[in-house]
Amino acid sequence: MPVALLALAISAFGIGTTEFVMMGLLPDVAGDLGTTVPTAGHLVSAYALGVVLGAPLLTALGSRVPRKRMLLLLMALFTVGNLASALAPGYGWLLAGRVLAGLPHGAFFGVGAVVAARLVRPDRQARAVATMFLGLTVANILGVPATTLLGQHLGWRATFLVVAGIGLAAVAALARLVPDLPLDDHRGLGRELRALRRPQVLLGLLTAVFGFAGVFAVYSYLASMTTEVMGFGTSAVTLVLALFGLGMTAGALAAGPLTDRAPRATLYGSLAALALALAAFRFTVHVPWLALVTVVVLGAVGFMTTTPLQMLVMEKAKDAPTLASASNHSAFNLANAGGAWAGGAAVAAGWGWTSPALVGSALAAAGLAIAVTAGLLDRAGGRPGASQVVARGAGEPVRTPVPSSPASGS
């Protein structure tokens, strides 16, 4: 794999760390700023709002900016947002800092996925994209626990200073390792918007909203399940979250080669496994060792959905993939917010701490139904699949598309 993917993975590590670390720092932030934990919880939503707004907006504004320069600008904005969060004098300023830090998230992964795919042969594009996402999963194993521990001992501001430092390191790595890539000769905002309106692209985004919401219906309340249902103490929460992160990493490693061979089959299989694992978690959560095993499985099959979704959306918008790719991350963050809301609504209704698992299973099943519908429409249309999802840039040699496996359904 090209060394440039390391720079993309470092950037993803920083983004993943700042996205999830706030969940573990809410009591510290609330105590320091003189507010309540539920009010401080809006800081999690503020970041997600930044992602949802920033993905299409910044991608559109940068539609004619060379991709390497765009990556550098987005990572610089990410660094500024985290530095602003560290230096925020009050709650309102911290809220603004979190929105600012979230703005480049979706656009970075959208542009980064296109860059990663263009650095390798067509039959290895999914593996290249999965390598970039590996930084996101490793953040949940190392970055989030380490920076949470740091924030608990040195104050939450130290956490965001460290994340800003990771952002600076990512900027240096991008500048050094990522090659200059020419803009596509057909590139333009109008073409990107037309690609985004295609039914198959919209169905892919809808699959992400429902399917991935199943993951966050449970993940958002995993800490409470650990102490209230599994019977562990609060000190075990970090371990349980790290196990979920280990599962995510395993899923990301498996998703790349599987998606290169059969994207639709990988998506169907991961969503079906996710629905079943979430339903099973409703029962295994009462047996501590089974609960821990299921947490790893949930992380693996949940994150295994991301690479095939990303590649299928890019393939369906392959002549203008950047905006569609970035919008996919808006869809994932809508899933985060929607899943957390649905799981919380079940708990608030008095259904108990295990009810988010059943809610998540239903959401994952809905995502699978949408994905299957998209696959059937593809077959009905008789469209041939191809593993090459990114159009060539000006001056690049023509690559011959590689037919997809019949199992892919693309």
Structure in a nutshell:
With 410 residues, this protein is mainly alpha-helical.
Keywords summarizing the entry:
single chain, about 400 residues, mainly alpha, globular
Describe this structure in words.
Helix 9 runs parallel beside helix 15. The protein is globular and about 55 Å long. The protein has 410 residues and is mostly helical. The model is unreliable at 384-410 (pLDDT under 50). The chain has helices spanning 4-33, 37-40, 42-61, 67-86, 91-118, 125-154, 156-177, 189-196, 199-219, 222-228, 237-261, 263-284, 288-304, 306-316, 321-348, 355-381.
Secondary-structure topology with pairs:
Blueprint: H1 4-33, H2 37-40, H3 42-61, H4 67-86, H5 91-118, H6 125-154, H7 156-177, H8 189-196, H9 199-219, H10 222-228, H11 237-261, H12 263-284, H13 288-304, H14 306-316, H15 321-348, H16 355-381
Helix pairs in contact: 1-3, 1-5, 1-6, 1-7, 3-5, 3-15, 4-5, 4-7, 5-6, 5-15, 6-7, 6-11, 6-14, 8-15, 9-12, 9-14, 9-15, 9-16, 10-11, 11-12, 11-13, 11-14, 12-13, 12-14, 12-16, 14-15, 15-16
List how many beta strands DSSP finds. 0
Strand content is under 5%
Give the integer mean of the pLDDT values.
84
Shape: globular
Q: How many DSSP H or I helices? A: 16
